[in-house]
Amino acid sequence: MSLLNQVLQDLEKRNAENLPEQLKLSNLKAITIKPSRSYYLPFAILCITGIIAIIIFTAQKTPGTLEKPDIAKQSIVKQSVAIQTSANVIKKIPPKQPSVPEPVHSINSPISYGMLDSLLNSLWGKMYTDNTFGTINIYKAQASKTIQTSSQQIGSGYSARQKKQPAKIKAKRKTIRKKPKDQTIKKPSNKQKAEHYFLLAEKQQHHSDKQKNLELAILLNPQHINARLLLTNTLLQQGLTIQSAKLLDQSLVLFPQNLQFITLRSQLFLQQKQAQDALNILHLIDENYVQDETYLSLLAAAYQQNNDNFNSLKTYQKLLNINPQKAEYWLGLAIALEKQGYPQQARNAYQQALDKNTLKPVILSYIKQRISILK
What we know:
The protein is mainly α.
């Protein structure tokens, strides 16, 4: 512009007078120089190349650099690249033995990109076009899917290992064998020994061997009732009444309410014509609450030997209520009725005993004699 002004000034000085009015400097106007259209072409080429470069960088899943991004933008880009590389590493890991890097989030939760979107929008603004953001969102969605699936695989592999680990521990526990402790053999107690000798005596047939084993059983366990009863019967079978009587007296001291010991001892007293002693033994228990046939028969015989006809009559009536087919009971009732002064009832009782036809011939002849007398 300075060169043009100088030329104009020279022309004005030389030809100021000769120039027509139309060409005077005062009438001259500034000519506007229009820019040539040749400048638009390189500018358009630069813009197109820039846009293509942006699209290429976004297509390669790496955020492009725009006009010297600052440190914050570079850190965000590095984070996105690190996420992509971690996703690729997770894909290559085999599912059986996953080696999980140390992620920021937990293994089972997928990584979210909400924070990354907010930072990109706040820092970059509207520098990218809608298509560019569309490609970035697609990249984020693909990355989130890959990371989510890989995290699920890692979680499933981790849970499977956790489930398998107790089984391995259990298997190891099964294989472990404890050393056997020194177990001292316990000696059998006296009760066990007594039971052993009692079982041996039950199997033996010889009275002498049976008697020895039963005496050992009672010596080891004086409370063994079955051994005492079996020994008493064994002694009675051998005719050893005195020894059996002593054994029964000892047993009654230990078990005064035992019905079996009472009946056996009273039977021995009745055999020896000791009716009062038999009654004393039989009265150790209350006769009103006893319905045992053996006990009542011995009690009726003891009353009859002791000339207690009233109690003998009542006892035989109890026995006939229990077993009316027993001829001995009808005979005992007939004797008690005859002594009480009831001849007709006594005759009927004698006839009942005769009709049973189970008594010995000597007793039957006695019954016929009494019937003939009481007519």
